[in-house]
Specification:
six-stranded mixed sheet, binds zinc ion, 21% helix
Length: 267
């Protein structure tokens, strides 16, 4: 019996004799099956050829797998009282990572932006004995159901210690960003609001790998959902996708650029 992990998206499945027939996360048109077909690994196999890097990322601490695995996102450790919240998740969890996270205060919870980063969240929750906060609108995408998963509903969910989950929707109906109060404030956005290479704008898409846009009304809804919150920085989903300052103006002008582009004017 093995808990199989999809090599393309990093999602871990429940214990079974054989891998699932397909990975619904990857057959969904927001992801894709690689040209060489559906392939599976296990946590032990993954750990044999990969390790996690834990290092500073802006004012936070990032945790990412090297060499890069699946979608390649890194998670973030966000201070939460005398512990941490893990924002987004990755597939690999090993003893070295557990020891390093415990040295930095451990985990009091995990919150994930959307199903592409559910990855190894149940494995992580079991190692740290903590809950997982996911938006209920995306419950059908939980491939390894577990009592640690605590769905929340509505438009906002305060977690305490200055952290608030905000439902943006867009890329997925329950697409979530995390607001962190303190200082000028920051948003952790996964790829619900995607930081683009030169950091001058952000992107809002239905499918990033397949380049399918959202309707303008959805783009404006995401921008409106974060507008009431004070923030100056945005942390995207991958290493170094950080907008250190002026992020609020960048979100506003990016949303306006989508309106122009989607109404037929070149931006
Ligand atoms: Zn997959
Ligand atoms: Zn995604």
């Amino acid at each position: 019996m093995e808990k199989h992990i999809c090599i393309a998206c990093g999602t871990q499945y429940p214990e079974a004799d054989a891998p699932p027939a397909a990975c619904p996360i990857c057959t969904d048109p927001r992801q894709y099956i690689p040209l060489d077909g559906q392939q599976w690994t296990t946590l032990a196999e993954l750990a044999a050829g990969h390790q996690n890097e834990v290092r500073e990322e802006g004012e936070l601490v990032g945790i990412g797998t090297t060499p890069s695995f699946a979608i390649g996102q890194r998670a973030l450790l966000v201070p939460f009282g005398d512990s941490n919240l893990l924002w987004d998740c990755i597939s690999l969890i090993d003893d070295a990572t557990v020891a390093e996270v415990k040295r930095r205060g451990g985990l009091a919870g995990i919150a994930v932006s959307h199903p592409h980063y559910y990855s190894g969240m149940v494995e992580w929750a079991h190692r740290f004995d903590c809950p997982i906060h996911l938006h209920a609108a995306d419950a059908e995408w939980v491939m390894r159901p577990d009592p640690a998963v605590r769905p929340w509903d509505g438009d906002q969910q305060a977690l305490g210690h200055g952290l608030t989950l905000i439902r943006g929707g867009g890329h997925f109906p329950g697409g979530t960003v995390l607001h962190r109060a303190g200082g000028a404030g920051s948003l952790l956005t996964g790829d619900i609001i995607q930081v683009i290479p030169d950091r001058s704008h952000v992107g809002f898409m239905w499918s990033y790998p397949n380049l399918v846009p959202l309707p303008d009304a959805e783009v404006q809804r995401i921008a409106a959902a974060v507008e009431p919150f004070p923030y100056d920085a945005i942390y995207g989903a991958w290493w170094q996708t950080v907008i250190p300052t002026d992020a609020k103006a960048i979100v506003r002008r990016s949303a306006a650029r989508y309106t122009r582009a989607l109404s037929g004017a070149l931006p």
